[in-house]
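Hi R.,

Here's the chain you asked about this morning:
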Amino acid sequence: MPALLIGFDPPGEVCKEIYRLKSRVKEACGQQQQVDEPPHCTFVVNNFSDIKAVDDILKSVCLGFSPLDISMKNITYFPPEKNKAWMVHAAIERNIRLQELQKEVIDKTSAFRQGCLLCDYLQRNIPDYQYSEEEKKDIQQYGYPYVGANWQAHISVAILDEKAFKKIGDELIGTAFQHKFKLKEITLFIYTDKWVPYKTYKLCK
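And the predicted structure, written out as C-alpha cells:
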C-alpha cells in the first residue's frame, strides 16, 4: 500500500528560490516541518491500494488538459487558527483549469485511497492539531488537501512553530517572489524517506 503524492514539480528557477528560503529557515530556526521536502505543489496525498490503477488514471486525465499558464506572486502563510502551526508557502494565483485538474485527479483516484495518511502524519507530528469541520468532511470524501472552490494551490516552504514564526515570519513574507511558467506535466511521487518523483504525465490535449 504505497504512499503516493500527485501534483507537480515547479521549474528550476522557482525551486532555486524555494530552496533558498528553506535554507534560511533552517539557518535561523533549526529543523521545522517540511523544510527538507523538495518543492512541489500537491493535488492529493494518501496511501493508495493500486499504483498501476493510479498510473492508468493519470494517463487518461492528462489527455483532457492542455498546458496551463501558472502565476506566482508572493510568499504568504495559512493562518494557524487553533493549531499554532504556520504553513509558509509560495502562493499560486487562482486558476480555474488548475482547480479542475486537481478535482478530476482526486475524483478518479479516490476509489483507491486507503486510510488517511494526513491523519497519521498529524498524529505523529502535531498531536494537538484540531480539524475544522470542512477538513473532516474533505478528508473523509476526498483525502487531502481537497477543499473545493477554496483550494489554494501553493508550494510549501515550511510549517513553522510559534517561536520560529515570530523569529522569521516577517522576513519570509517580505521576500519578493514573482514567477510565471507553463505547466506542461504533472508528477506522481512515491514516499521513501522523502517524496521522490516516480513518473510524469504530459498535459497533451
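The radius of gyration is 16 Å.

Let me know if you need anything else.
M.
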